[in-house]
Amino acid sequence: MEPRLLALLALASVAFAVPIKVPQTNDCATQCKASTKMNYNKGTTYVYDYRVDYSTSMSGASEDSAKLTLTTKAELEVLGPCEMALSLRDTRLFHSDAMGGLKAADGEDNFRRGLEASALRFSYGDGAVEHICTATREEPWVMNVKKGILSAFQNNMDDLRTDQNVTETDVTGTCKTEYKAIDRGYYADTVRKTKDVLSCMDRNDYKTILQMVPYTESSDLQGNPLMKTTHECDQVIERGSYLKSTKCKETHVYRPFSNGQDGVTTFVEQTLTYSTYKQSGYTRKGSFWRCLFVNKK
Ligand SMILES: *[C@@H]1O[C@H](CO)[C@@H](O)[C@H](O)[C@H]1NC(C)=O
């Protein structure tokens, strides 16, 4: 199959429905809560392996299933309390061929260049991503990939050991989100984050991690509203320290086609895994950043 998916980068139009303001300072954060559950060291860059696997299938038509995989290294540079920069390295984009093997996707070079061109500044206070700041106007698809990564870093619990329901904003929109403490280890806590997708404000605008992969087929599906979506992530957080891993699963079932054919199901799996740290060589704080409001508890 010549994957239509790979008419890449046409991933248009996730408009920023967010106010843009130009801050007077070099800081992206407008406030900084004292850290209680997480603590990232200034001057350190935390390096994570990040992967998204995306597959779509039409039931009863296995030859029509298609897969895309994005891998990259996400480097989280700690510039100061609540001030972070996200840079991507070694980005690859694969699709599965007819034999099920992975091969480099068309447009991979453009894809990598777009994602690696600049660092994204954001404010990160004790797990909450509150603002995103860019030096230049980023392409919407670049922002989507990066916002997807930031959503994996996000944890809005007050206490990792106490279940809590919050309303939070990330790449998926503003949604009711349930946090559950599911495992309390000696060194690390594991929590489960589940979005109530029906609760998301402006559901027509529900974007999902599906958008983090270059994906044009969605236009085919627009006449077939989502029937069901689930979104669930498990996060492991080193006690009092940093995020060790996040694994998210998202499923979308689209309504059967009007001619009676079965519907379409898509699965997205997202994994962010801590690999190492390094001392930040130098810290660039740009003098002019545009701030995009994203989240306020
Ligand atoms: C969170 O919401 C879910 C679903 O409405 C409910 O079952 C659960 O008890 C709530 N948890 C807390 C801690 O309020």
TrEMBL record:
Classification via InterPro entries: Lipid_transp_b-sht_shell (IPR015819), Vitellinogen_b-sht_N (IPR015816), Vitellogenin/Apolipophorin (IPR050733), Vitellogenin_N (IPR001747)
Signal peptide (residue range): 1-17
For whether the record's keyword set contains Signal, the answer is yes
Task: Report domain Vitellogenin positions.
Answer: 40-297
Query: What keywords does the record list, in alphabetical order?
Result: Signal, Storage protein
Q: Does the keyword Hydrolase apply?
A: no
The record's section on PROSITE patterns has: VITELLOGENIN
Q: Name one GO molecular function term.
A: lipid transporter activity
Q: What is this protein called?
A: Vitellogenin domain-containing protein
Q: Which organism is it from?
A: Elysia chlorotica
